[in-house]
Design a protein that fits this description.
By secondary structure, this protein is an alpha+beta fold. It contains four helices and seven strands, in the order H-E-E-E-H-H-H-E-E-E-E. The longest helix has 26 residues. Keywords: Cell projection, Cilium, Flagellum, Membrane, Transmembrane, Transmembrane helix.
Length: about 180
Protein backbone atom coordinates (compact mmCIF):
# COMPACT_ATOMS: atom_id res chain seq x y z
CA UNK A 1 0.00 0.00 0.00
CA UNK A 2 2.82 2.40 0.85
CA UNK A 3 4.44 1.67 -2.50
CA UNK A 4 1.25 2.67 -4.35
CA UNK A 5 0.99 5.99 -2.43
CA UNK A 6 4.66 6.82 -3.11
CA UNK A 7 4.24 5.96 -6.80
CA UNK A 8 1.12 8.21 -6.97
CA UNK A 9 2.96 11.14 -5.34
CA UNK A 10 5.91 10.59 -7.71
CA UNK A 11 3.58 10.64 -10.75
CA UNK A 12 1.92 13.89 -9.51
CA UNK A 13 5.30 15.60 -8.99
CA UNK A 14 6.59 14.54 -12.43
CA UNK A 15 3.35 15.72 -14.07
CA UNK A 16 3.42 19.12 -12.30
CA UNK A 17 7.07 19.71 -13.25
CA UNK A 18 6.39 18.74 -16.87
CA UNK A 19 3.38 21.09 -17.08
CA UNK A 20 5.34 23.94 -15.46
CA UNK A 21 8.24 23.71 -17.94
CA UNK A 22 5.98 23.29 -20.97
CA UNK A 23 4.08 26.47 -19.99
CA UNK A 24 7.39 28.29 -19.53
CA UNK A 25 8.59 27.24 -22.98
CA UNK A 26 5.27 28.10 -24.62
CA UNK A 27 5.14 31.65 -23.21
CA UNK A 28 8.78 32.53 -23.82
CA UNK A 29 9.17 35.31 -26.43
CA UNK A 30 10.60 34.25 -29.76
CA UNK A 31 14.33 34.81 -30.09
CA UNK A 32 15.15 38.05 -31.85
CA UNK A 33 17.50 37.71 -34.76
CA UNK A 34 20.24 40.26 -34.77
CA UNK A 35 20.02 42.57 -37.72
CA UNK A 36 22.83 42.31 -40.22
CA UNK A 37 22.21 45.89 -41.34
CA UNK A 38 24.75 48.43 -40.12
CA UNK A 39 23.62 50.95 -37.51
CA UNK A 40 22.19 54.11 -39.04
CA UNK A 41 21.91 57.73 -38.01
CA UNK A 42 19.38 60.33 -39.12
CA UNK A 43 20.65 63.71 -40.26
CA UNK A 44 17.96 66.33 -40.63
CA UNK A 45 18.95 68.85 -43.26
CA UNK A 46 18.52 72.56 -42.99
CA UNK A 47 15.70 74.34 -44.83
CA UNK A 48 17.00 75.43 -48.22
CA UNK A 49 15.83 78.01 -50.72
CA UNK A 50 17.15 77.31 -54.20
CA UNK A 51 16.52 79.70 -57.10
CA UNK A 52 14.96 78.34 -60.29
CA UNK A 53 16.84 79.99 -63.15
CA UNK A 54 16.30 79.73 -66.90
CA UNK A 55 17.62 81.75 -69.87
CA UNK A 56 15.56 84.83 -68.98
CA UNK A 57 16.55 84.92 -65.29
CA UNK A 58 15.13 83.85 -61.95
CA UNK A 59 11.64 82.36 -62.31
CA UNK A 60 11.08 81.41 -58.69
CA UNK A 61 12.42 79.53 -55.71
CA UNK A 62 12.35 75.96 -54.48
CA UNK A 63 11.72 75.72 -50.75
CA UNK A 64 12.83 72.40 -49.37
CA UNK A 65 13.87 70.37 -46.39
CA UNK A 66 15.35 66.89 -46.60
CA UNK A 67 16.36 64.24 -44.09
CA UNK A 68 19.10 61.70 -44.73
CA UNK A 69 19.64 58.25 -43.23
CA UNK A 70 23.37 57.50 -43.13
CA UNK A 71 25.55 54.57 -42.13
CA UNK A 72 26.74 55.56 -38.66
CA UNK A 73 30.18 53.94 -38.91
CA UNK A 74 30.98 55.30 -42.38
CA UNK A 75 29.73 58.79 -41.46
CA UNK A 76 32.29 58.98 -38.65
CA UNK A 77 35.10 58.75 -41.18
CA UNK A 78 33.88 61.77 -43.19
CA UNK A 79 35.66 65.04 -42.44
CA UNK A 80 33.09 67.21 -44.23
CA UNK A 81 30.02 68.37 -42.25
CA UNK A 82 27.21 66.17 -43.57
CA UNK A 83 24.48 68.84 -43.44
CA UNK A 84 26.47 71.24 -45.63
CA UNK A 85 27.38 68.45 -48.04
CA UNK A 86 23.72 67.49 -48.42
CA UNK A 87 22.71 71.12 -49.02
CA UNK A 88 25.40 71.50 -51.67
CA UNK A 89 24.17 68.36 -53.44
CA UNK A 90 20.61 69.72 -53.45
CA UNK A 91 21.82 72.91 -55.14
CA UNK A 92 23.70 70.79 -57.69
CA UNK A 93 20.63 68.72 -58.51
CA UNK A 94 18.08 71.55 -58.55
CA UNK A 95 20.16 74.26 -60.25
CA UNK A 96 23.02 72.49 -62.02
CA UNK A 97 21.24 69.37 -63.30
CA UNK A 98 17.77 70.94 -63.49
CA UNK A 99 16.12 67.65 -62.62
CA UNK A 100 12.88 69.58 -62.06
CA UNK A 101 11.73 71.29 -65.26
CA UNK A 102 8.68 73.40 -64.58
CA UNK A 103 8.23 74.35 -68.25
CA UNK A 104 7.69 70.78 -69.47
CA UNK A 105 4.52 70.17 -67.46
CA UNK A 106 5.73 66.70 -66.45
CA UNK A 107 5.27 65.56 -62.88
CA UNK A 108 8.38 65.09 -60.83
CA UNK A 109 9.52 61.49 -60.54
CA UNK A 110 10.11 61.49 -56.77
CA UNK A 111 11.99 58.20 -56.69
CA UNK A 112 14.36 59.34 -59.44
CA UNK A 113 14.83 62.65 -57.59
CA UNK A 114 15.72 60.81 -54.36
CA UNK A 115 18.00 58.40 -56.20
CA UNK A 116 19.81 61.27 -57.98
CA UNK A 117 20.53 62.98 -54.65
CA UNK A 118 21.58 59.69 -53.04
CA UNK A 119 23.87 58.72 -55.92
CA UNK A 120 25.43 62.17 -56.13
CA UNK A 121 26.25 62.39 -52.43
CA UNK A 122 27.63 58.87 -52.26
CA UNK A 123 29.73 59.51 -55.38
CA UNK A 124 31.25 62.63 -53.81
CA UNK A 125 31.98 60.72 -50.60
CA UNK A 126 33.45 57.76 -52.46
CA UNK A 127 31.40 55.25 -50.46
CA UNK A 128 27.77 54.27 -49.76
CA UNK A 129 27.41 56.49 -46.69
CA UNK A 130 23.87 57.73 -47.35
CA UNK A 131 21.30 54.91 -47.22
CA UNK A 132 18.12 56.85 -48.03
CA UNK A 133 16.75 60.34 -48.65
CA UNK A 134 13.45 61.52 -47.17
CA UNK A 135 11.71 64.59 -48.52
CA UNK A 136 10.07 66.59 -45.74
CA UNK A 137 9.13 69.55 -47.93
CA UNK A 138 9.59 70.58 -51.54
CA UNK A 139 7.58 73.61 -52.66
CA UNK A 140 7.91 76.13 -55.47
CA UNK A 141 7.30 79.85 -55.07
CA UNK A 142 7.08 81.69 -58.39
CA UNK A 143 8.70 85.10 -58.73
CA UNK A 144 5.37 86.54 -59.90
CA UNK A 145 3.81 85.47 -56.61
CA UNK A 146 6.05 87.87 -54.73
CA UNK A 147 4.15 91.15 -54.65
CA UNK A 148 4.96 94.34 -52.86
CA UNK A 149 2.04 96.46 -51.72
CA UNK A 150 2.76 99.53 -49.67
CA UNK A 151 6.32 98.49 -48.89
CA UNK A 152 5.23 95.16 -47.40
CA UNK A 153 5.85 91.96 -49.33
CA UNK A 154 2.71 89.93 -49.91
CA UNK A 155 3.33 86.25 -50.51
CA UNK A 156 0.95 83.92 -52.21
CA UNK A 157 1.10 80.33 -50.98
CA UNK A 158 3.85 78.18 -52.45
CA UNK A 159 2.99 75.36 -54.85
CA UNK A 160 3.57 72.03 -53.13
CA UNK A 161 5.63 69.81 -55.43
CA UNK A 162 6.05 66.83 -53.11
CA UNK A 163 4.02 65.93 -50.04
CA UNK A 164 6.71 65.33 -47.45
CA UNK A 165 7.22 62.62 -44.90
CA UNK A 166 8.03 63.25 -41.26
CA UNK A 167 11.51 62.29 -40.11
CA UNK A 168 11.91 59.71 -37.35
CA UNK A 169 11.48 61.03 -33.82
CA UNK A 170 15.22 60.67 -33.20
CA UNK A 171 15.85 63.49 -35.70
CA UNK A 172 14.23 66.23 -33.62
CA UNK A 173 17.41 68.30 -33.58
CA UNK A 174 19.91 68.66 -36.44
CA UNK A 175 22.89 66.35 -36.02
CA UNK A 176 26.29 67.96 -35.68
CA UNK A 177 29.02 66.25 -37.70
Amino acid sequence: MVKIVIAGIWACIVTLVAVYFSVQLATRPAPVEESKAPPTDVIRGEPVTVPYVDDSGVKGYFLGRFTFVVDKEKAKTINIPMTELMTDQLFTVLVGNKIIDLTSGKKLDVEQFRQTILTGVNKRLGDDVVKSVMIEQLDFLAKEDLRETGGKPKLKPAVKIVEGEAPPAAAAAPAQH
